[in-house]
Design brief:
alpha/beta, single chain, 8-stranded mixed sheet
């Protein structure tokens, strides 16, 4: 098996089916990849929907996107671990594009490009800007890959102990930065994913500012906030900053 596609979830019944359908419909053979959903004991129909498509649905009381990704990785049988957000969809050739990137043995990590699938101008602009920065930093040898659609060779992932579970945010940038010390990480601009802008539809300025602050804080100090609330849990713009 070439790929293990891992999706961490919590209360994602509105998004998860669309995400999983895009994975099932990949243009490579179904025997070349498995789908693992790692659910944080959702109270909605997330796990029920996931079982229609996934090879395995793991359910655990513990929350945290890093924990969910690591839990999925522990059960994975694929040579390459592909991490996908529950509100993302993959282009039909996403995995076949990744295959071409990983054909070089020295390549141990890769990301596609996630484009916004909905939303108004400013939320869409933020996501386009994110991947402009990803490519800019990669040009200078700094791998900072968002976890929306990133992939790593399993041995290298295990060697660096996966995602840091004490990080509530920037855990994805941290992993790509650490794992890049063990080999080459590349961007495949033809491996496309499409991401909802829902996280930016409310409290846009506060959310963008918090992400920028968190990124800078991590790069300067190596530290990060321990918790990142879901949109539905935010009542005011201040909720992000009260940690």
């Amino acid at each position: 098996m070439e790929f293990s596609v891992i999706i961490p979830t919590y209360q994602e019944e509105a998004c998860i089916e669309r995400c999983l359908r895009s994975i099932v419909q990949q243009d490579i053979g179904r025997t070349k990849f498995e789908i693992i959903v790692s659910d944080a004991h959702s109270a909605d129909r997330t796990a029920e929907i996931a079982r229609r498509y996934a090879d395995r649905v793991l359910v655990d009381e513990k929350r945290g996107i890093a924990y969910g990704r690591n839990a999925g990785a522990k059960t994975a049988g694929g040579d390459i671990l592909v991490f996908v957000d529950a509100d993302a969809t993959l282009a039909p050739d996403f995995l076949s594009q990744l295959s071409m990137t990983f054909i070089t043995p020295a390549v141990i990590g890769a990301t596609g490009i996630a484009k916004p699938s909905d939303g108004k101008f400013m939320p869409r602009f933020f996501y386009y800007g994110t991947y402009i920065l990803v490519r800019f930093f990669a040009f200078w040898g700094l791998s900072l890959f968002p976890g929306i659609c990133a992939a790593y060779r399993r041995p290298n992932f295990i060697a660096v102990n996966g995602f840091r579970e004490d990080f509530g945010i920037v855990e994805d940038l941290d992993l790509s930065r650490r794992i890049s010390r063990t080999g080459i990480c590349r961007i495949n601009k033809n491996a496309l994913a499409f991401i909802s802008t829902r996280r930016l539809q409310n409290h846009l300025v506060s959310t963008v500012a918090f992400h920028i602050y968190s990124d800078i804080k991590y790069l300067l100090t190596g530290k990060a906030a321990p918790h990142y609330p879901k949109i539905e849990e935010m009542k005011t713009w201040k909720d992000l900053w009260q940690q």
